């Protein structure tokens, strides 16, 4: 799948959501219009899957509010995905050996089983 150009400015235009989408496997997880746009435009379905699957991690599942950060090394096509508790305490992290995600960094929130962009919070 070829990804399209995606910008942080474009993502910041999403405020609130008109629709809620249910994750197909982790059914308790919902995501917003902004997340769906990011998934479709950047081909980042895997990113939402990873966040949803990590909700079963012992240190993550007890946190009502989470900050997920994907820091991408664009030159090497690798990334580090980490989850924080909103107070800069890292709950878990995972090396991503390959990604074509177009942004150097993206933050995604999880609040009350909803995956959303910071501007949608």
From TrEMBL:
Q: Name one Pfam family in it.
A: DUF6876
Where is each DUF6876 domain found? 6-121
Source superkingdom: Bacteria
Task: List the source organism.
Answer: Dyadobacter endophyticus
Record's protein name: DUF6876 domain-containing protein
